[in-house]
User: Fold this.
Amino acid sequence: MILHPSKNFKGAVLLLLFFSTYTFAQNKVVITDSIEVAFLPALSYNSDFGFSVGGLLQRFHYKANTTPFYSFTQIAAIVSTKGLASAQIRYDNPNIFNSNNRSVNQLYVSRFLQDRYYGIGNYQKIKDSFTSNTDFYSFQSFSFGFDSRLRVPIKSRKQYSLDLLAIINFDYTTPVDNGFEQLITQQQPLGIRGGRTLNIGTGLIFERRDSEFRPSKGYYIETTADVSQTWLGSSFNHFVFQADVRKYISFFLLKDVTWANRFYTKNTSGDVPYWKLAYAGDAETLRGYPANRFLDDNVLLFNTELRTWLFNIEAIKGEFGGTLFIDIGRTFPNGESFNTVFNDLKYSFGFGGTSSFFTPDFVLRSDVGFSNEGIGIYFTAGYMF
Assistant:
């Protein structure tokens, strides 16, 4: 996809669930070390990918006095009816080399026969954009790469933490076997002949949530800046800045309810290939619009959700809940006046269901998003934010 290929796996949610849990105790009274393994055969539907089959293996290793876990490993592979074939390995270690530094690494490869390109700066309404003129807006693509991030604590307290972030990201992406009848071939955006990017960057993360996987109060702030230069081995010279601010408030209304909010922006400059541009549209940005529906130099997004857990089924150790959401945002080019940045905002809204089995850290959700261009259906792993 034009967006980071590793996001494909959040879009492949899994309707069959098999859990096996292994617990190791240092003595008969206190459990100090446990491993929880979830294997999920993938059988799902997503408006952007179609029906998907595959598998997802997740391994949580917990130890006493380590949060949110000692290590997390995920191996995933999916194929879909829209021609997506992807594989990913992700490893997250919050205590690398027995230090307080956290390392998150992922390796991915993706081949997509019906990737989507609606043009850069195309804001005209497309009726039912999920299915409209699929031959014209689709193209074939191939990509692979890795992303490595190191979080180094600057200041840590029981209530909050401030971390310095170091980033290395490499990807190679190329359109393949596309004809002149497709929009991407006609417009020839930067990167049409493929290329590689090697981004090096840094950032800050301020963490004050009560939970990383299902937060109900607190807030989270992440800012990053990275550069890609030809002298580093990249095919392009560009700069990318991103900011992600999240706030969570809880209250009681028949049930415990969480009001979750996120503001996100991405700004790019320089020679930016089409797959590195800011985008809006998919299960993680504007639900109800197809993936990468809006593509430009910059993006502003605001997402707000009401979340609650409704009931438990003890026999299967499962929790079930629901969400209501509104997504607002837009992309825009560099040089646009600040007075017009908030013009022509795109809106979507919808509802969803959530479930969690055996461990509260593993959340499944299904969303239905409505926009003025169609209806998006998404089965995903984890909350949107």
Notes: The helical segments are 134-137, 183-187. The longest helix spans residues 183-187.
